[in-house]
Amino acid sequence: MRTSTADGSCTRSARMVTGTLAAVMMLVGIAALGAQAEPASEPTPSVSILTTWSGPYGGLPPLDRATPASLESAIRSGIEAKRADITAITSNPKAPTFENTVLALDSSGKPLARAQSVLQELLSTASTDELRAVAGRVLPLSAALENEIAFNDALYARIDAVFRGLPASAPTPEARRLVTVMRADLLHRGAGLDAAGRLKLKSVNARLTTLMSEFAQNTSREEEALVVYVDDVTELKGLPDDRIAAAKAAATQRGKPESWAIPMQRPAVWPVLTRAESRPLRERVFKLWESRGNNRGTFDNGLIITEILKLRGERARILGYPTYGHYATARRMAGTPDVALAMVERAWKLLLPVTRLEIANLQRVADAEHANITIEPWDRLYYAEKYRQQEFGLDSDAVRPYLSLQNTLDGMMWAAGRTYGLSFRELNGIPVISPDIRVYEVSRGQDVVGVLYLDLFQRKGKGPASWTTEARPAEHNGAAVLPIAMMHSNVVHPADGSEPQLSWEVANVLFHEFGHALHMLSNHAPYVGLGSLQVPWDFIEVPSLLNERWLLDRAVLSRFARHRETGEAMPAALIDKVERALRHDRVFSVNLEFLATALVDLHLHALPDTSAIDAVDEERKLLAKMEMPSAVTPLLRVSNAFHIFTEAYGAGVYTYLWSDAIAADIAEGFLAAPGGLYDPDVAARYRRTILEAGATRPMSEAFREFRGHDPDPDALFRRFGLLPDTGTH
């Protein structure tokens, strides 16, 4: 009954000023930057189709009309247009002001952002070799432009002049905040470096972009290539019928119709580890899954990791930081890697004895059935499921008949309506790339507040896992611009065409990603650079982790969790079992598997010299030092730890724990109110201070206004009974 996992959900967006395609490409895994494939030869629609969206709601992305060639032309055109925007700012003969400098930079590059948004969506949901080749050509151009902006002395001088004139130089508190954030961002990227420093940083950044892309591509391609074949269906005993059918279909697709195939992708791997009675099969699947990125050959990530760590250290030192961990955390809520590490290590100390007890309980289950084994990592999920059934009377598959995809979506939207006053109206005739994508107008009362795309089904060319993108941020400076949020997942279409039935985990992931969408759709910041996704990265998951709590709410379950055959509501007794099991299993960040990955991430980025490091060996030594039980392995091994080797989450995997703690504190505020999760006063304050405010002020201040105190990390541990509840919070 585990909830959303670190490799299962994320939010994707370009950041203020640094709005390049780099983060996007590393998340989807593009072809090598040196790709020299020729542009596609299909007719090229007008660039303006992609850079100035037409249609209702202030324009919608023309996903059905974009081609690789048109996207390349639009992005090249957008780069030149943004370069012209910057030149107009720096060549302005008038003295720098908030309007002619800071606001002008915040408003720059919108045609480029729109074209990049379309490419991002297609790359992550309908990728082709042609699109990846285009990305390989335009990414260096976009990165070069961002280097120009970061190293533009005239631009920085004008922004610095406005900053030094504060508070008189900006008209409102939000404007003053934008000035401060924009200047800090440029300094963080290298503004003010001398010529030698700039040259070195450009070289480091370019190489890092290539390496991070190669890491993502290796991991993605190896997942596609690695597969365990089963020749005797009896080896699959214990798996649900739909998973056996999926294994048969996977083998048939690979030219082995006489076999069954378990590809090394999470939706296929986890059911085997949880349900398959064959221990040898579980072991084969687990070991191959763990090996991703650490197999000698084409997709080995070892040397790539070493070079990434070395160059990240160089970047940090160029910019005046002792380690990359210090550089990465400087603009997060944690502030320093030591603060983040202290929180992770405290959680580790609390959970180590708990985990040992849990493993002992699993061993007793195995001993009782005379398995004659010692619990190994490939046994843990299997016996955890048996323990759950014995201890809580819960078979995790028991919830599936009640959680159809449509029921889950209906409950999700109903809860948002009751809590935040939102309504959702499905639209027809909107340009999409697949007929199973659904689009909604989102309103509050009579006011339309945004547009939501739901792209929830697995298909060829689509990235794994679940994520949410902000296709267009809201703007409230002058004429309002409606936000567009796009929520993605990988639900499998049942072979018989029936409505998909979800596991609790998948339903939880949808509520999680919907929390990101609500954050984007609620954004009421006046400037793009202070929008929802400009909050510190260790706060970015808070709205999504908090939104998971509504799936647990009995009002939602009793109304929407209806049996697919009888239509009866999920029984109260089953909900009781789910609640007890979830309290036992905890959220994924409050488990050693996650904490191990977070510790390795912080450790690697704290090393002063990584020029010849073997990251796999370093991981092994660290976890041995931390007394990691042998039956437990990291959620993501360093060789395939996708998050560690992206720009957003490098030295920042800890942010899930950090955000979970803040979300738990916020939830305590809701649950202590008379109306609980639907209390109108608490919901209105949360909406005003958190969801709508974006980055208009430091998140510590926003949180303090909402809760009346600084974030209490113990709220998360209290939630799962790891600390006594004193009743004072």
Task: List key phrases describing it.
two-stranded antiparallel sheet; alpha/beta; Neurolysin, domain 3; 27 helices; globular; 729 residues
Describe the structure.
This protein has 729 residues and is of the alpha/beta class. Among the domains are: 9-193, Neurolysin, domain 3, CATH 1.10.1370; 222-290, no CATH class; 402-588 and 657-719, Neurolysin, domain 3 (Orthogonal Bundle), CATH 1.10.1370.40. Helices cover 52% and strands 7% of the residues. The protein contains 27 helices and eight strands. The chain has helices at residues 22-28, 47-51, 68-90, 98-106, 110-125, 129-150, 153-164, 173-189, 195-225, 241-253, 266-275, 279-290, 302-318, 324-329, 337-368, 377-392, 405-420, 504-522, 542-547, 554-560, 572-585, 592-604, 615-625, 655-671, 680-691, 699-707, 714-719; strands spanning 9-12, 227-230, 260-263, 422-427, 438-444, 447-457, 466-472, 484-491. The strands form two sheets. Strands 1-7-8-6-5-4 form a six-stranded mixed β-sheet, with helices on both faces. A two-stranded antiparallel sheet has the order 2-3. A hairpin with a 2-residue loop joins strand 5 and strand 6. Helix 17 crosses helix 20. The radius of gyration is 25 Å and the shape is globular. Mean pLDDT is 90; it is low at 1-8 and 12-43.
Strand count: 8
Mean pLDDT over the full residue set: 90
- CATH class of the domain at 402-588 and 657-719, please? Mainly Alpha
Note the gap between the termini. Answer: 27 Å
- The CATH architecture term of the domain at 402-588 and 657-719 is Orthogonal Bundle
Percent in strands: 5-15%
In one word, what is the shape? globular
**Biggest sheet details:** 6 strands, mixed
What is CATH's topology name of the domain at 402-588 and 657-719?
Neurolysin, domain 3
Q: Strand arrangement, largest sheet?
A: 1-7-8-6-5-4
